Amino acid sequence: MGDASSRAGSGGKTAIAYVRSIADVRASIAVARRQPDAVVGLVPTMGAFHEGHLSLMRAARSRCSFVAVSVFVNPIQFGGTDDFNTYPRDLDRDLAMAAGAGADLLFAPPDGEMYPPGFETAVEPGSIATGLCGASRPGHFRGVATVVAKLLNIFAPDIAFFGQKDAQQAAVIRRMATDLNFDVEVSVEPIVREGDGLAMSSRNTYLEPDERTQAVALFEALSQARDAVAAGETSVARLRRQMKRKIAEHYLVDLEYVKVVDPATMEPVSAVEGPVLAAVAARVGRTRLIDNMLLLPAGGD
Ligand code: PAF
């Protein structure tokens, strides 16, 4: 099958197809679709796997007859000052981990396969992408929406799996799938955290030991807001002040934003009158971290 090859997983037990071309993906999906009641799942990633990625693959494995994973560090979602060149890459390790999680296929295309010469079309998300991370990373969600649209067209999955840690990304993708009539279920899986609460991220590997200790500030601020709302707090101004104060206790954490928004539209809210999303972004040393938590009002369902 073209440049497709098979490699064994870490224990040497599980085979996973490793493909680099879109033609090979399509051929593999066509074979998988021959199975009666086939359900194709796609886990789009940028690699450098951690437990968060594995939880997406396991969720896919539990619901799909064929699980595909893509690994592509998408250049068009990185801005000029972002970490595209230094973003962690370890394909052999990713292959072994994906195989261990039960994935059937891993697609790791070269840049030219996704963006051949002459490429110039993009998906432009609307207002959902302008606040939060969109404000400090212009063009980021355009790059994300474009590559995810391409991946959905390449794989035509029944279900695509994303992590709640990138809550705005998940909302942008849901909006895009609805607006552009992608025939796919967008499944958003819970954040996976380290023992102290730090949300798992490929970028956590950049943290120096003292930065790693202080990075838990994001989780602590969000947890405090969650508890305050559960205890009856409804003022978003007060919640934001409390979260800022908690983060300011950590001198290595440089806050970018703390917002409380509608979980579907990402529009800021001024009072907690139903479930809302608290979202935080901060730089810890040279590492940009994001985290979020759903705040459920007292007595809500
Ligand atoms: O969340 C990510 O890893 C990326 O933004 C995604 C969705 C794979 C698009 O490049």
Secondary structure blueprint with pairings:
Layout: E1 5-8, E2 15-19, H1 22-33, E3 40-45, H2 51-63, E4 66-71, H3 91-100, E5 105-107, H4 111-114, H5 132-136, H6 140-155, E6 159-163, H7 167-179, E7 185-189, H8 209-214, H9 217-230, H10 236-248, E8 253-261, E9 276-284, E10 287-295
Parallel strand pairs: 2-5, 3-4, 3-6, 4-5, 6-7
Antiparallel strand pairs: 1-2, 8-9, 9-10
Helix pairs in contact: 6-7, 9-10
Pantoate is lined by residues 44-46, 74, 77, 144, 147-148, 166, 169.
Structural class: alpha/beta
**CATH homologous superfamily of the largest domain - what is it?**
HUPs
Element order: H for helix, E for strand: EEHEHEHEHHHEHEHHHEEE
Low-confidence stretches: 1-13
Strand order of the largest sheet: 1-2-5-4-3-6-7
Bound molecules: pantoate
Give the CA-based shape.
Answer: globular
**Architecture per CATH nomenclature, i.e. the level-2 architecture of the largest domain:** 3-Layer(aba) Sandwich
Mind telling me the C-alpha Rg? 20 Å
Mean pLDDT comes to 95
If you had to describe this structure to a student in words, what would you say it looks like?
With 301 residues, the protein is α/β, with parallel strands linked by helices. It folds into two domains: 5-189, Rossmann fold (3-Layer(aba) Sandwich), CATH 3.40.50; 202-295, Pantoate--beta-alanine Ligase, Chain: A,domain 2 (2-Layer Sandwich), CATH 3.30.1300. The chain has helices at 22-33, 51-63, 91-100, 111-114, 132-136, 140-155, 167-179, 209-214, 217-230, 236-248; strands at 5-8, 15-19, 40-45, 66-71, 105-107, 159-163, 185-189, 253-261, 276-284, 287-295. A seven-stranded mixed sheet has the order 1-2-5-4-3-6-7, sandwiched between helices. Strand 1 and strand 2 (15-19) form a beta hairpin. 39% of the residues are buried. Mean pLDDT is 95; it is low at 1-13. The protein binds pantoate. Residues 44-46, 74, 77, 144, 147-148, 166, 169 line the site of pantoate (PAF).
